[in-house]
Structure formats: structure tokens, C-alpha cells
Write a structure and sequence with these properties.
Radius of gyration: 14 Å
Number of helices: 0
Order of helices and strands: EEEEEEEEEEE
Shape: globular
Helix content: under 10%
Distance between the termini: 40 Å
Largest sheet: 7 strands, mixed
Strand content: over 45%
Number of strands: 11
Mean pLDDT: 97
Low-confidence stretches: none
Structural class: mainly beta
């Protein structure tokens, strides 16, 4: 049974930091690219950051470059999102995604999300 369980969300003041974690099980974690998405009220889900299966390459949305860092620990089946210098506009539900494609198939799994609220 595939599971992605996010944790680490909460309420933080502007300028503060949070570290999100996503624990994976039920699939070969090291074979999947991992991403963090977020969705704010009334807005579409947007890609925040992606890391390749071996962790050798990362990509970020322009809005979070220089403030957020995605990393992974394949031995622990976990992906992280370190969020620094948080802004009110970072407020959203953050989702973890696992993705892999082959010639024959495409696989995409989602977590249930964790709320991040940036407010004074």
C-alpha cells in the first residue's frame, strides 16, 4: 500500500522557518523523483520544488528560490522541504508527490497535505 505522509506544517511568523517532511512507504522510493506542491485557498496547485531520484538535481519555483531547499534521504524514504524567510504568501496546504515514468507507464502518488500558515 503506497503512503506519503507529510508532517512539519504549522503557524509561523513572517521571516520564520519551517521544515516539512514526507515519509514514503509501499514503493521503491529511490526510483522516484520527489516534489513539493502547494495550494492556497482559491488558487490552483503549484509546483514548489523537485528533486531527482538520486538527489543530484533540484528545481524551484521562482517565488521560493533562495528561500526553500528540497532534499531527500533515500535510506530513510523521506523527502524534506526546508523553508526559510517565510512570507504570508507562502500560506498554503503543502503536498508531497512521488513521480516516475517508464516507456509503458506513468506513476504519481500524493500525500494528504500539511497546512502552513505564515501570519503575525
Amino acid at each position: 500500500q503506497v503512503q506519503l505522509v507529510e508532517s512539519g506544517g504549522g503557524l509561523v511568523q513572517p521571516g520564520g522557518s519551517l521544515r516539512l517532511s514526507c515519509a514514503a512507504s509501499g514503493f521503491t522510493f529511490s526510483a522516484y523523483a520527489m516534489s513539493w506542491y502547494r495550494q492556497a485557498p482559491g488558487k490552483e496547485r503549484e509546483l514548489v520544488a523537485t528533486i531527482t531520484s538520486a538527489g543530484g538535481s533540484t528545481k524551484y519555483a521562482d517565488s521560493v528560490k533562495g528561500r526553500f531547499t528540497i532534499s531527500r534521504a533515500n535510506a530513510k524514504n523521506t523527502v524534506y522541504l526546508q523553508m526559510n524567510s517565510l512570507k504570508p504568501e507562502d500560506t498554503a496546504v503543502y503536498y508531497c508527490n512521488a513521480y516516475k515514468f517508464t516507456l509503458a507507464n506513468e506513476y504519481s502518488y500524493w500525500g494528504q497535505g500539511t497546512q502552513v500558515t505564515v501570519s503575525s
